[in-house]
Amino acid sequence: MSANDSPPKPAALTGPDTTATPSGVGTTTAPSSPGTTTTPPIPDTTTIPPTLDTTTLKHRWIWIVTGPTASGKTSAAKALAAYLNFPFIEGDDYHPPANIAKMKDSIPLTDADRAGWLATLRDYETRSSNLVMTCSALKRAYRDILRLDDVGVMVRFIFLDAPEEELTRRAAERKGHYAGPGLLKSQFEALERPGEDEGDLFVVGTVGRGVEGTVEGVRGVVRGVMRREEGWGV
Ligand SMILES: Nc1ncnc2c1ncn2[C@@H]1O[C@H](COP(=O)(O)OP(=O)(O)O)[C@@H](O)[C@H]1O
Ligand SMILES: O=C(O)[C@H](O)[C@@H](O)[C@H](O)[C@H](O)COP(=O)(O)O
């Protein structure tokens, strides 16, 4: 979505589309007419993205994919949303135009610039269904804003890890995005890496594994956390 498009309104959010066809694994195609001996085709499950069955959950879940610009948030979060069958929100779509203009010019945002944006995202969280959202959430204080004091809501963070040089290269190669490589130095100056006491945050390394390998890593973390918290297979 470009910065000029209107992002969806929080109130419009709905829960996961439980009417959607699941992964399709194990489904078969009905024969064209009864009584014929046509063998249904066997679906090629290697091309079907795996999904978790999240139709019955004890909690509301909000997964926030974090990291500096070009760390892979959008790529990973979209894949995660598909995996969970949760709505996906691109946090950057909620930056006011003034913030976008600054970032286009590689001018770092200040805490004040980010305050309204983070408040909007928090508001979104309080009113949403299950959700996968991207947000750079560079500082501990920003993550604290996104943590909700609601025991029924599991807010969990993924931090996509990679060094500045790698992200500078990715940002330079990425086309058609307002955030260029000139932002990386200030993003790393602002970055407060996850503290040991941030037990709701999970670090996923992204170097040398490509988008697919990273997505696999994210899915593995999410699966493990949700299995534990939801009591699956216990
Ligand atoms: N794990 C990865 N390894 C290598 N390149 C990646 C990885 N994740 C994303 N990319 C690439 O880096 C660029 C930035 O990814 P993107 O998902 O837009 O990041 P962000 O949303 O954090 O800015 C894209 O061109 C994307 O294809
Ligand atoms: O807090 C910030 O300074 C911004 O949120 C920034 O970290 C974000 O990364 C940019 O909006 C670029 O967007 P992408 O992260 O999608 O590249």
UniProtKB/TrEMBL annotation:
Residues 1-51 are annotated as: Disordered. It comes from the Eukaryota. Its EC number is 2.7.1.12. GO terms for molecular function: ATP binding; gluconokinase activity; hydrolase activity. One of its GO terms (biological process) is carbohydrate metabolic process. Keywords: ATP-binding, Hydrolase, Kinase, Nucleotide-binding, Transferase. GO terms for cellular component: cytoplasm. Residues 17-51 have a biased composition (Low complexity). It holds the Pfam family AAA_33. Pathway: Carbohydrate acid metabolism; D-gluconate degradation. It catalyses: D-gluconate + ATP = 6-phospho-D-gluconate + ADP + H(+). It is an enzyme of class 2 (transferase). Belongs to the gluconokinase GntK/GntV family. This is Gluconokinase. It comes from Schizothecium vesticola.
